[in-house]
Write a structure and sequence with these properties.
Helix content is 79%, strand content 0%. It is mainly alpha-helical and 193 residues long.
Length: 193
């Protein structure tokens, strides 16, 4: 296989997943926006620090929405059997890339480049930070949280455990048996499956 064919094949596999990932992210952004405003303007209207509480609640609900969308749609063929571990990893990646990367971008803009002001802050946090964070998030979801290699290892372990369990139950014989030994012999199939 040539390098061009390999690259085209990889792009053909990743592109649909990237589009689904983007769609899930857009839904998560909408959920975040709606929940934030509902919490801020209606539910927590008279609560001190309503902005902070609304941000936390909206972020957690948006991350949960994104996890469900990515788990059952964008990365559905690669999801892990251990949903709790996958959820914790997803949440950690989402917080690190959704908060950490924009903060680094703002810090670089402010302190290294000397670009201070609302426009520079918005560009560094909400354009550059969001774009770089999205690339890191996709990469970490694809190759760590929903890693195909981890999914394959998990399936192999489950199949091995099922095979060992089946072998143990089929080879274990009761202490007192009567009748033909042929009836107690496990059937290996036509080719020993």
């Amino acid at each position: 296989m040539t390098t061009e064919t390999t690259t085209a094949h990889r792009a053909a596999r990743i592109l649909p997943q990237l589009i689904k990932f983007g769609a899930v992210g857009a839904v998560g952004f909408g959920v975040n926006l709606v929940v934030f405003n509902v919490m801020l303007l209606i539910v927590l209207r008279n609560v001190q620090h309503a902005t902070i509480y609304s941000t936390i609640i909206a972020t957690v609900i948006a991350i949960l929405t994104n996890w469900i969308g990515n788990r059952y749609w964008a990365f559905s063929g690669q999801r892990q059997d251990n949903a709790a571990r996958e959820g914790v990893e997803f949440f950690a990646v989402s917080l690190a890339t959704g908060t950490g990367i924009p903060l680094v971008c703002v810090w670089i803009s402010h302190y290294l480049l000397g670009m201070v002001g609302p426009v520079a802050d918005n560009i560094s946090a909400n354009v550059v930070g969001l774009a770089v964070g999205m690339l890191f998030r996709f990469a970490l979801y694809r190759w760590w949280v929903f890693s195909p290699a981890r999914a394959a290892r998990s399936k192999a372990k489950a199949e091995t455990a099922a095979t060992v369990g089946a072998t143990t139950t089929t080879t274990a014989e009761p202490a007192a048996t009567t009748g033909s030994t042929l009836a107690r012999t496990p059937d290996g199939g036509l080719v020993g499956d």
